[in-house]
Write a structure and sequence with these properties.
The complex is a heterodimer.
Chain A: H1 2-11, H2 13-28, H3 35-60, H4 68-81, H5 87-110, H6 116-135, E1 140-141, H7 149-152, E2 154-155, E3 159-160, H8 161-179, H9 181-191, H10 193-198, H11 203-229, E4 231-232, H12 240-250, H13 262-282, H14 286-306
Antiparallel strand pairs in A: 1-4, 2-3
Helix pairs in contact in A: 2-13, 3-8, 3-9, 3-11, 3-12, 3-13, 4-5, 4-6, 4-11, 5-6, 5-11, 8-9, 12-13
Chain B: H1 2-17, E1 27-32, H2 39-55, E2 58-63, H3 68-80, E3 85-88, H4 97-105, E4 110-113, E5 127-130, H5 133-147, E6 152-158, H6 164-180, E7 184-191, H7 196-209, E8 217-220, H8 223-235, E9 243-246, H9 251-259, E10 263-267, H10 271-286, E11 294-296, E12 301-303
Parallel strand pairs in B: 1-2, 1-3, 3-4, 4-5, 5-11, 6-7, 6-8, 8-9, 9-10
Antiparallel strand pairs in B: 10-12
Helix pairs in contact in B: 2-10, 5-6, 7-8, 8-9
The chains are: A mainly alpha, B alpha/beta.
Protein name (chain B): Sugar ABC transporter substrate-binding protein
Family (chain B): Belongs to the bacterial solute-binding protein 2 family.
Keywords (chain B): Signal
């Protein structure tokens, strides 16, 4: 019985960290635990959150995608740039852009068998160049104000639509991980790729699908960001891949693959979002802010390591 | 126990470093562009805090670190804080327009600092405080006319095209020359993207293209590019027949003006004056006082004659 309780704590450590952050900022800042602020937090986490869905899949595979931040930025530019063709075509163009770049990443990783760290690092740099070429180093303004409703709509007057999109995708993603062969194969490939291949799993196809998924999620995030800013800017997305990876790792997904799930990734995304929001509310000086984010994250991962989730 | 201790210590340091100053009940919420990326922005941040302390107002100063989406998030966080006035130094003058609409609906006045917001956002904000780059271009044109006695051919090296600061400094120079100095002709304009090495290359090309006597003056968008261009001029030995004016002084330009003869005039744009003026206007807005839409601080001309009156810039 006692073992079961400690196992439970070990597996769910991200939720205790989340609870601690909530208590800390709740007592520090009167405005923290308010409906308005939580509407902000939900809106703010949905962008990195969407990217974390694809990243979790890839990290369970034992792969990584460093290019998500730049795919996100490029797709945000595409959805604004294509706006004169209409909102639906522009959204489709952005999604297609993200999926094509994801497919290229996947093909290089799966077929050419180049390490995904290197492939997506190259893609990150290359796509950034593409972004500069596309925006001409200056911001493009959106012309159709209806597009901004995507980000500003609140379901039932309360819940931000982008957050709902994120949570729905997250739920679908978790369902697929748990209940389909694609999901089970993800763990098998991450656990031992050779064994998975010998067991007859189409590893290459599986990896390409997950890179396309990652590209599509980054594109969705970009579409939401563009809707919030109604602008395509060349300075978007330079740090997002780092926050996304940290959030997924915080959620306990193993960088080496074979272990992890999306519900705990959600916890990681929340912790990052709440730290950022809480430190903003407290008005901590920007230099200390970065120092604290860094220290707190290492501390949290250290604690998480102590209570390393059981791999069963 | 140890973990608890680390957590407690972290919390205590956090409390100590968070910008909570108790005084008059005015709270300024600021989101800066990218503090720490250059000395101008770093000094602006320091001066902003000092001035706010001096005036006895509270402040929450955030930094977007050059990321437009982060700035949008920060503007929303500041709205939650019910600040009395919001100061925004835009990372992107366009990307903040939709969120500014929400700030306006919340009834919080917004002061745009240093770099302008897109014109579609003018109706959503209460004003702008910062340097007047058009006037700086005009001043540089006037000094150029002095340096050349109203006669001569001038080449221009400008900042990054597409950035409003670069374009306004160029525009002010051109307008003033065309309006008042018919003897001066601007024969070519090239961008060097605020970069010293690029400016040196651009100047080398100018010197190859135009022989001695074919150009008399060089106008640069700031001293940083000016110093690059001067390097090129010196290595070609063309320094005796060329005069330069610049739209903004940096420390290197200050030294150059004192030691050499090429840099005739530049303009003293101080981040400290910039920040002080911004805080003053922001406090007026928070108190509900009327302010002008464009609030420009003074950027005086500096030449050999009056350079002694100015301290060497620390930026």
């Amino acid at each position: 019985m006692k073992k079961q309780i400690t196992d439970f704590i070990k597996k769910q450590s991200i939720w205790f960290i989340l609870l601690l952050s909530l208590i800390f900022f709740g007592t520090m800042q009167a405005n923290f635990l308010t409906l308005r602020n939580f509407q902000n937090i939900f809106l703010q986490i949905s962008i990195n959150g969407l990217m974390a869905i694809g990243m979790t899949y890839l990290m369970i595979n034992g792969e990584i995608d460093l290019s998500v931040g730049m795919i996100y930025a490029l797709c945000a530019a595409v959805v604004i740039g294509f706006q004169p063709l209409g909102i639906i075509p522009s959204v489709l163009a952005a999604l297609a852009t993200g999926m094509v770049i994801g497919a290229i990443n996947g093909i290089f990783v799966a077929k050419a068998e180049i390490n995904s760290f290197i492939v997506t690092l190259g893609a990150m740099i290359g796509v950034r160049g593409l972004l500069f070429v596309y925006t001409g180093e200056r911001a493009i303004l959106g012309t159709d104000l209806r597009f901004t409703y995507l980000a500003s709509t609140r379901i039932g007057g309360v819940f931000p639509l982008p957050a709902l999109i994120f949570l729905v995708f997250l739920a679908i993603g978790e369902y697929f991980l748990r209940n389909t062969s694609h999901g089970r194969n993800a763990y098998a490939i991450g656990g031992n790729q050779d064994a998975a291949e010998k067991a007859g799993i189409a590893v290459k196809k599986h990896l390409i699908i997950n890179f396309v998924l990652s590209g599509a999620m980054a594109a969705t995030a970009g579409i939401i960001a563009a809707s919030r800013m109604n602008t395509a800017t060349p300075t978007l997305g330079r740090m997002n891949h780092l926050w996304v990876i940290i959030a997924v790792v915080l959620g306990g997904t193993d960088l080496k693959g074979g272990y992890g799930n999306l519900v705990r990734t959600l916890g990681g995304i929340f912790v990052i979002g709440i730290l950022d929001n809480g430190l903003n509310l407290m008005g901590v000086h920007t230099f200390y802010n970065m120092l604290f984010m860094g220290s707190i994250l290492i501390l949290v991962i250290f604690i998480g390591k102590k209570f390393e989730p059981l791999k069963s | 126990m140890k973990k608890l201790f680390i957590l407690l210590t972290l919390s205590l340091i956090l409390i100590a470093t968070s910008g909570m100053v108790m005084a008059e009940d005015i709270v300024i919420g600021m989101t800066a562009n990218n503090t720490g990326v250059d000395s101008y922005q770093t000094l602006h941040d320091q001066a902003f805090r000092e001035k706010a302390d001096e005036m006895g107002v509270e402040y929450t100063i955030l930094d977007a670190r050059g990321e437009p989406m982060r700035q949008v998030d920060q503007i929303m966080d500041l709205m939650t804080q019910d600040v009395d006035v919001m100061v925004v130094w835009p990372v992107s003058g366009q990307a903040i327009v939709p969120v500014l609409r929400q700030v306006q609906q919340a009834g919080i006045p917004v002061l745009i600092a240093n770099s302008k917001v897109d014109e579609s956002g003018f109706e959503l904000v209460s004003g702008f405080a910062g340097p007047d780059n058009i006037t700086q271009g005009e001043y540089a044109a006037q000094m150029m006319a002095e340096a050349l006695d109203g006669e001569g051919r001038v080449v221009e090296i400008m900042g990054t095209p597409g950035y409003i600061t670069a374009e306004e400094r160029s525009q002010g120079f051109h307008d003033e020359i065309e309006a008042n100095y018919p003897g001066i002709e601007i024969i070519e304009t090239q961008p060097a993207d605020w970069n010293r090495e690029r400016a040196q290359e651009v100047m080398e090309n100018y010197l190859t293209k135009y022989d001695d006597g074919e150009i008399d003056g060089v106008y640069v968008g700031d001293d940083n590019m000016g110093v690059g261009a001067i390097n090129a001029i010196r290595s070609e030995g063309r320094g005796d027949n060329l005069k330069m004016t610049s739209a903004t002084m940096f420390a290197d330009g200050y030294d150059e003006m004192q030691s050499g003869d090429i840099l005739y005039g530049t303009l003293y744009q101080s981040p400290i004056d910039d920040a002080n003026y911004t805080v003053e206007i922001a406090v007026k807005l928070a108190r509900g006082e009327e302010v002008e839409f464009f609030n420009y601080f003074e950027t005086p001309k500096v030449t050999d004659e009056n350079i002694a009156e100015f301290e060497r810039p620390v930026w």
